[in-house]
Automatic annotation (TrEMBL):
Entries under Gene3D superfamilies matching the protein: Immunoglobulins (2.60.40.10), SGNH hydrolase (3.40.50.1110)
Classification lineage: Bacteria, Bacillati, Bacillota, Bacilli, Bacillales
Keywords associated with the record: Signal
Organism: Sporosarcina newyorkensis
Record-annotated Fibronectin type-III domain positions: 274-360
Xref: InterPro entries: Cell_Envelope_Struct_Comp (IPR051465), FN3_dom (IPR003961), FN3_sf (IPR036116), Ig-like_fold (IPR013783), SGNH_hydro (IPR013830), SGNH_hydro_sf (IPR036514), SLH_dom (IPR001119)
Short name of any one Pfam family annotated for the protein: SLH
Protein name: Lysophospholipase L1
């Protein structure tokens, strides 16, 4: 017999190793997760058969808890789930008793290495808790007459059971939050379990469902727990969601709908990201600086991609946690987001987002109006312009001696006080061709009692007289302070004696407050009010009422 060569021996040894050691590609590897800022969620379900997952044939199956856990796992945020403390037939009293005795039960779920768990410790470790309890407290009192098939129940017994449900829910939540003040708790509302009953009985059944859900919500009062409504969702297609008339449990499709309701509530209320994980701060009038926190596992992050809306505007290396975005406009809301990318090019499934609006910073005018340098009202006009009470023209003039119209004066007062219309009952017929903003100002002034027209006319383009402006400012004082200004001295002007008592009182008030002093003993009430005089009187009036 010939000796085997070393080559044959090595080949045989290699074949032996292949038989003894499975190839590397057959070893199941844990799927790589996306980068994330979301802390892993431990999910605990408490309650009755709906939480456990009894299906419409009465057999154990997938319930809403399972579908919710699957969705969280799909989103790569689930760490563990356990529905072992849910049990068919459980009442709210059973759930409360389990809490009081700190019962231990087998774990039914995913992610945990333990075979059994104690309830108190499970609550302490839970980030998300769902609770479904209360229906089994009431159902024993909802009986059917065997001969007629109609419900036969005592309303007082049912009411007492519902009251007990509310008290038990209150105690259950109190104990949960005592053990874990940070837990996010979501409580399921019940649906009509008897939609196949005759139509004439449905109003009574609907009232009972409403009463039970009301009792549950009453027990939740004063807690941060969220109520998840399901009755309307199941009622939309009860033949699909409750296919078995002899069984009150949902089909898989029904449980999926309920899981969707929980998921929607989670999306709206659960604090997925740490507070201030992404912040925006203005650097100047066109630039915002974004700052964010690192993802939970920073070791594999290569870059962070920065988005303005749907457009990526920049990308920084992993250790960098800030980015400047320029060329922005003031008074416009922007939506910024950041997405993490790992060393394999896998992007974070969830992006962190924030909205921001750059405020328009008022710029001090470098030049004054070109036509007021030698005007007696120069200082007060510039003050009025700085306060945003009056403005100039595009050619940088103010035109101080130009008269002010009734519409212009009204708009200035309304905008200075930030008055809003109270109705759409415009009493004036001569505003058809004016801008909507001017109409809104005049409507607000009318609603707040600042103006009156004549025979349905406001005469918006007519110059406002000094007497009319005095009356407008007097009414403005009352609108702003809630009480009229009653002058204690009479005005010394000889040319106002033929005016109405209210107008004379308004002029006297302006005189006493040193808002209008007249000229050589005259107020000139019928004279048009110039833009310069209006600036002075309006600025002084607003200062008098603390605006």
């Amino acid at each position: 017999m010939k000796k085997k060569s070393w080559g044959h021996l090595l080949l045989a040894f290699a074949l032996l190793l292949q038989l003894a050691v499975p190839p590397l590609q057959t070893v199941a590897a844990e799927p790589e997760k996306s980068p994330t800022w979301i802390a892993p969620i431990n999910y605990l379900a408490l309650g009755d058969s709906l939480a456990f997952g009894i299906n419409s044939t009465g057999e154990p199956g997938k319930g809403y808890v399972d579908f919710l856990a699957e969705e969280l796992a799909k989103q790569e945020v689930l760490q563990t789930s356990n529905k072992g403390f849910s049990f068919p037939g459980y009442t709210s009293s059973n759930v409360l008793e389990d809490l009081q005795t700190d019962i231990s039960k087998p774990v039914i779920g995913t992610g945990s290495q333990d075979k059994t768990a104690a309830l108190h410790q499970s609550i302490k470790e839970a980030d998300l808790i769902t609770l479904t309890a209360g229906a089994n407290d009431v159902l024993p009192y909802f009986k059917f007459d065997e001969s007629t098939g109609k419900p036969d129940f005592d309303l007082e017994e049912i009411q007492a059971a519902m009251t007990k449900v509310g008290g038990n829910i209150q105690q259950i939540l109190a104990k949960i939050y005592q053990l874990n003040p940070e837990a996010q708790v979501y409580v399921m509302g019940y649906y009509n379990s008897f939609p196949h009953m005759p139509a004439e009985l449905q109003p009574q059944i609907a009232q009972l469902v409403k009463g039970l859900n009301g009792a549950i919500q009453g027990g939740m009062q004063g807690t941060p727990a969220k109520f998840v409504q399901t009755d309307e969702l199941i009622a939309k297609d009860f033949s699909k969601y409750l296919p078995n008339p002899k069984n009150i449990h949902l089909s898989e499709a029904g449980y999926q709908v309920v899981a969707g309701a929980f998921q929607e509530s989670l999306m709206n209320n659960y604090p997925w990201f740490p507070k201030d994980v992404l912040t925006a701060e203005a650097k100047d009038q066109s630039t915002v600086v974004l700052n964010w926190g690192p993802v939970i596992d920073t070791g594999m992050i290569m870059t962070y991609q920065v988005y303005n809306g749907d457009k990526m505007v920049g990308e920084v290396m992993g250790p960098v946690l800030t980015y400047e975005i320029g060329d922005l406009q003031p008074d416009k809301e922007y939506q910024f987001s950041v997405q993490a990318v790992d060393q394999h090019g896998k992007k974070s499934m969830h992006t962190i987002k924030t909205s921001y609006t750059l405020e328009k910073v008022p710029v001090e005018p470098s030049v004054t109006f070109t036509d007021i340098s030698n005007h007696w009202a120069k200082d007060v006009i510039e003050l009025a312009a700085e306060k945003g009470i009056v403005g100039g023209y595009s050619d940088l003039t103010f035109r101080p001696d130009k008269s002010l119209t009734r519409a212009q004066a009204t708009s200035i007062i309304v905008r200075a006080l930030d008055l809003k219309p109270k109705s759409n009952n415009m009493p004036f017929e001569d505003l058809a061709y004016y801008a909507d903003s001017t109409k809104a100002d005049i409507q607000a002034a009318y609603d707040h009692g600042l103006i009156n027209g004549v025979n349905g006319q406001f005469m918006p383009n007519q110059s406002i007289s000094r007497a009319q402006l005095a009356l407008l400012l007097s009414r403005t004082y009352e609108a702003a302070t809630g009480k009229p200004f009653t002058p204690t001295i009479a005005a010394p002007f000889k040319d106002i004696q033929n005016f109405a008592k209210e107008t004379q009182g308004a002029i006297a008030g302006l005189y006493q407050l040193n808002i209008a002093t007249g000229d050589q003993g005259k107020f000139m009430p019928n004279a048009p009010t110039t833009r310069a005089h209006a600036a002075k009187m309006i600025v002084n009036s607003l200062e008098a009422i603390g605006q």
